[in-house]
UniProtKB/TrEMBL annotation:
Keywords: Magnesium, Metal-binding
Gene3D superfamilies to which the protein is assigned, alphabetical: Enolase-like C-terminal domain, Enolase-like, N-terminal domain
Entry superkingdom: Bacteria
BP term (GO), one: carbohydrate catabolic process
Residues annotated as signal peptide: none
Protein name in the entry: L-alanine-DL-glutamate epimerase-like enolase superfamily enzyme
Limits of the Mandelate racemase/muconate lactonizing enzyme C-terminal domain: 131-243
GO MF assignments: hydro-lyase activity; magnesium ion binding
SMART domains: MR_MLE
């Protein structure tokens, strides 16, 4: 019987030159950090995960070492307690699924139920560009086979002047590509960077934006109100034909349960690297389906997080599209996936997961040595 022998956590930093100017952050990002979690068993196999910093995990290794790595529900319970007392340590859950897949010789998507071995993607942009440049980017996405694109609105701390300027970018895209591309909008109102103290939109701000998005046939509007305003989001959902999406930074599974049961959102967006891991988020996939709520994970992390969310979505979800962070040149696949020997790459807007055991990750050990903090 396989037993967990060790857990190793390392932190890495890739300098970004030119910097990445994220729409949700007024400060240009001059580096990209990644935390790598490795779980080894007593037969030398290694499971890999990535995501949050694993703050608070140190000192809890003994709760896992000596256990069977395949006892995923047991490990989930322990991680949920650590999450309550300390930080988000869900990358360990991803590593345990990867190791379990390597022990059984199965890809995670099949271990989760085998619903599909690939997922349809939407190109998730991150940079605020002038309207004509946004339209150029949309055309490039179409040429690469993507069926949908997410456009970022500026947070209060940077980028365009306000939402009316953001709407102009959408209008330019629609004028250029017509209905050849589904468009989503991330309103960036659900949370703020620590230094950004500007208030989010009010309900009537969001409703005004929704009216403009209806005119432009937008598929969903994401995070249109502050995360605590559940009544406002439900009222907005009932006031517009545009789908309301959210939940990417939600910390607890029971919060998602309430969002689903109360029909607050049309689309929930948990990220396995940030809430519940694969073990917890598969519960949400089933709950959402029973309630008629769309389940499609947030995945703005590195390629390890993209693959983990894709394995879950393919295995037991039924998402129309999965987020694929990709906005050349500032957010290339090579930058996003620098811990890996080769970046995750789509094929005509699809991510094909194949038969590789576990999550399908191969780390670039030389790159990780060079970028270790």
């Amino acid at each position: 019987m396989s037993r967990i022998a060790s857990i190793e956590i390392s932190h890495h930093r890739l300098p970004l030159d030119p910097p990445f100017k994220a729409s949700w952050d007024g400060r240009p990002r001059r580096h990209f950090d990644a935390t790598i979690v490795r779980v080894r068993d007593d037969e030398g196999r290694e499971g890999i995960g990535s995501g949050d910093l694993m703050k608070g995990f140190e000192g809890h290794e003994d709760l896992f070492v000596g256990q069977d790595p395949r006892h995923l529900e047991r490990h989930y319970e322990v991680l949920s307690h650590i999450n309550f007392h300390y930080g988000r340590c869900w990358p360990l859950d991803l590593a345990l699924w990867d190791l379990s897949g390597k022990i059984t010789g199965e890809p995670v998507w099949r271990m989760l139920g085998g619903r599909a071995d690939r997922v349809r993607l939407y190109a998730s942009s991150g940079v605020l560009r002038e309207p004509s440049a946004m339209a150029d980017q949309a055309e490039r996405y179409i040429e690469e086979g993507f069926p949908a694109m997410k456009v970022r609105f500026s947070s209060s701390s940077g980028g365009r002047v306000g939402w009316r300027d953001d709407v102009k970018a959408l209008e330019a895209i629609r004028a250029r590509v017509g209905d050849r591309l589904e468009l989503m909008v991330d309103c960036n109102q659900g949370w703020r960077m620590p230094w950004d103290t500007t208030l989010p939109w009010t309900f009537k701000d969001a409703l005004s934006v929704a009216r403009e998005l209806e005119r432009l046939s937008i598929y969903w509007m994401e995070e249109p109100l502050f995360r605590s305003d559940r009544k406002g989001m439900k009222a907005l959902k009932e006031s517009t034909s545009v789908r309301i999406a959210g939940g990417e930074m939600t910390r607890e599974l029971y919060e998602f349960r309430d969002l689903i049961e109360e029909r607050v959102l049309d689309v929930i967006q948990p990220d396995v690297a940030l809430v519940g891991g694969i073990t917890g988020c598969r519960r949400l996939a089933y709950q959402a389906r029973e309630a008629g709520v769309t389940f499609t994970p947030h995945s703005w992390t590195n390629g390890i997080g993209v693959l983990a969310n894709a394995q879950l979505t393919a295995g037991c979800g039924d998402a129309p599209f999965l987020e694929y962070p990709y906005d050349n040149p500032e957010w290339s696949e090579a930058r996003r996936d620098y811990p890996m020997i080769a970046p995750v790459q789509h094929r005509d807007g699809w991510l094909e997961l194949g038969e590789a055991a576990g999550l399908g990750i191969t780390l670039d050990e030389e790159r990780l040595k060079a970028t270790r903090i």
